[in-house]
Specification:
Layout (H helix, E strand, L loop, with lengths): L17 H25 L4 H47 L1 H14 L4 H12 L2 H13 L9 H17 L4 H4 L2 H26 L4 H26 L6
Helix pairs in contact: 1-2, 1-6, 1-8, 1-9, 2-5, 2-6, 3-4, 8-9
Length: about 240
């Protein structure tokens, strides 16, 4: 049997979600700001300077991450819209091919050839339903469940700020080595929870993900502390 020629190229994967913005927002905020705080502490500055650096880092980093998330999700949604428009055109211009293609998907899911053909014809009789089904089958997205760029940016901003401010808290009530150690401890505990959440969402080892997150944070803190110590910049409030 001759193979039917595909009249259109394959679609790219364009799936995404808001949970990612939340998890990575708090992860980035925590890692970047605890290392920033420890770096300043290593430079021998006063606690007021560490607080200022921590707050400034939290706001600047959150704004940058929110902007990046907004751009990313907006571009993703534009890509989805483009692919949907292309698929809508294909459904109109090549209905026979699209019907056979959908039937093939159903056969791949376990239907008999006859059932798959019947189901595909039934779906293709409703253009908007056909578009949704093809979108789900061909490039793995649900047109009715696309993420909001504004929501993603807002979640990213807020989660980044939460993660970034946690290691700054000790510097409001203490200073010196004690505050630095407290920042690392708070950061380490938070990193365990964030790493665990990443492990759960990715369906991977929770323990491994949590430990990895803590190690990343400790390496970042060690690097910035070393830089701060070597520069030994003394700044007075």
């Amino acid at each position: 049997m001759a193979r039917t020629k595909d009249p259109h190229p394959g679609h790219r994967s364009v799936a995404g979600g808001l949970a990612r913005a939340a998890v990575f927002g708090i992860s980035d905020g925590l890692t970047s700001n605890v290392s920033l705080v420890i770096g300043f502490a290593g430079g021998g500055v006063s606690s007021s300077v560490v607080r200022l650096a921590g707050i400034a880092g939290a706001v600047a980093g959150a704004a940058s991450m929110a902007a990046g998330e907004w751009i990313s999700v907006s571009a993703q949604n534009e890509l989805v819209e483009r692919e949907l428009e292309a698929e809508r055109k294909e459904l109109t211009e090549h209905p026979e091919f699209e019907t056979r293609e959908l039937a093939a998907f159903y056969e791949g899911h376990g239907m008999s050839k006859e059932q798959a053909a019947s189901a595909a014809k039934e779906v293709m009789a409703k253009p908007e339903l056909a578009l949704i089904v093809h979108a789900r089958e061909e490039f793995g997205i649900d047109p009715d469940d696309m993420p909001s760029a504004i929501s993603a940016a807002t979640i990213s901003f807020l989660c980044f700020v939460v993660g970034a401010l946690l290691p700054v808290v000790p510097w409001f009530i203490g200073s010196g080595t004690a505050a630095g150690v407290a920042s690392i401890v708070i950061g380490g505990i938070a990193a365990l929870f964030v790493g665990g959440a990443i492990g759960v969402s990715a369906e991977r080892s929770v323990a491994r993900s949590a430990i990895r997150q803590v190690l990343i944070m400790l390496v970042a803190c060690g690097a910035t502390y070393l830089i701060g110590t070597l520069l030994n910049t003394s700044v007075t409030a």
